[in-house]
Amino acid sequence: MHTVFFSHLLMSPQTAMTIAIGNLVYEVWHIAAIGVGLLLSALATGHAILNKSDSRATIAWAGFIWLLPLVGVVMYFIFGVNRMRHKAALLRSNLKQYRAQAAHPECLPEELQHHLPDYAGHLKMLARFVGGVVERPFLPDNRIDPLVNGVC
User: Fold this and answer.
1) How many other β-carbons are positioned within 10 Å of the β-carbon of residue 140?
2) Whole-angstrom Cα distance, residue 123 to residue 50?
3) Domain ranges in the chain?
């Protein structure tokens, strides 16, 4: 009877450490599962908010995801993500026939300084930034007419 109570004293340190780690994992696995469920639910809800065009569908999916955390996430990624639209966009991205053709050749950033006045040096950096974001070429003959009090 005493051997049952003192059996942990007879174990090697490695065995005792393995048992201690096993007990710790057994005690906290549910906390890790809840954390993973919350993280996946937040990611799936964010994906639905950013990619769904119909607000009713977004609210329905978000509710489903949070009411059934792990099941809702799996169901959303199986049925809620529109793969056809993504595949069509991928197929169209490389086709040139869908892109508008410019009437004039594009203006390269190096040539931009010839088209801008001398006092507009700050616009060169803005044009470079906008060109990187928009990923469309600069075209000549564009202009901006500022409106003062709504009058041109």
Assistant:
1) 13
2) 32
3) 2-93, 100-152
Band of residue 61 on the pLDDT scale cut at 50, 70, 90: very high
66-75 pLDDT, tens digit per residue, is 999 889 999 9
pLDDT value of residue 46: 94
CA torsion through residues 117, 121, 124, 126, sign:
negative
Candidates 127, 142, 136, 138; CA nearest to 105 is 138
DSSP lists the bridge partners of residue 151 as 148
Distance CA 134, CA 79 (A): 32
Amino acid at 110: E
pLDDT bucket at 96, cuts 50 / 70 / 90: low
Instruction: Quickly state the pLDDT bin for 110 (edges 50, 70, 90).
Output: low
Task: Tell me the C-alpha to C-alpha distance, in Å, between residue 75 and each of 32, 66, 144.
Answer: 21, 12, 49
CA dist., res. 5 & res. 19, Å (int): 15
